[in-house]
Here is the input.
Amino acid sequence: MTVQPMTASTIAKKVVNQDPFFILDVRNEDAFADWKIEGKNIQYLNIPYFDLLDGVEEILEQLPTDQDIVVVCAKEGSSIMVGEMIAEEGRAVHYLRGGMKAWSEHLEPVKIGDLKDVGELYQFVRIGKGCLSYMIVSNGEAAIVDATRMTDVFIDFAKTLDVKITHILDTHLHADHISGGRKIAEAVNGTYWLPPKDASEVTFAYESLEEGRTITIGDTTIAIQPLYSPGHTIGSTSFIVDDTYLLSGDILFIDSIGRPDLAGLAEDWVGDLRESLYKRYKELSGELIVLPAHFMIIEELNSDGSVSGKLGTLFAENHGLNIESEVEFREMVTGNLPPQPNAYQQIRETNMGKLTPDEETQREMEIGPNRCAIR
Amino acid sequence: MKSNKVLDAKGLACPMPVVRARKVMKEMETGEVLEILATDKGSVADLAAWSKSGGHDLVKHTEEAGVFTFWIQKG
Here is the structure.
């Protein structure tokens, strides 16, 4: 018996389908505690590979015989080694091809819905890191919102749909992942849009995302209306698409809200965050479908693997939208903040164009979960 | 820093730096110091965790021009 590769795509489908399977994670205990493959029906065993070099006999009885076993490590080398040892004992076993690096980079496109006249909206779920990007398609043209640095996925997807990417937008200057926006804009000769208040230090040219400047794709019926909604960053801008969808960036998530401290001091922006969520969003139609830039926990995924919710439902159920006392709200978003995303300062500077790390370094910078939310 | 043995693991990817280090360490005496050179970024966290797990002491590590050097005292 030999160890078989399993792709990040196959595992993503198992997670979405809530299939039960078993992960033997052979990374360090710290790395495992910090970030792992999440899923509703996954069982885990974490033993660092260097503790298995003498043999795997001792753990064999902890491995199930009625479920797929996937050995996982950072890049794949150690998982192949441990997988081979398990296979030599006569057990069926897989390893995650490309390791957590591949898991972090995997994007799963999901169709969210059709637009009113002609067009579609797609969500790209970066399931390993919890990032969400969007493609709005209409009449042969496409706009991309909050693209990740895996730019080929978006460019190839547009090719298969036979549409031309004309506009690339970021809701804000990201701190948890490297934006692919500028790279795509250069590759397709499209327009890259950023909120000016987040872009004061960028080293490249961009178009200013401002309320009142409507962006059209394809024909004039599909409109992307920017809505200034500061709080996560000072420039954070949401988009209302086709009067139906609210792309909320990192201001509002399905079961959590954005944290106000990644580009400055939480105390400075907590007022903006409250104003955006409790006043500006409150004035919008409850029928709008919220499409955020992140999810934090796997429970936020719908049964088809997408992440979305009606604004009205979120106002009823999201704890972060239901804190009456301003003092209590301030305490929640400034008092007990989770650790910041890995390398978030360098990621911000990369997104400003100040740093130009090579691809391997970019991968390392993005290791771990996004950590943009407060729950 | 003085070492009793030097292991050149430059260019090797995970898990090989740790696998080699373990092999060399087995032949060394308690208290002796193994110096390891590696270029794999993952080896920084891995050699530290392996030392701890094996009861060895990672005395020092440095980085220069993409090469990581570790001094590990056998426990």
Remarks:
- Chain A is about 30% helix and 25% strand.
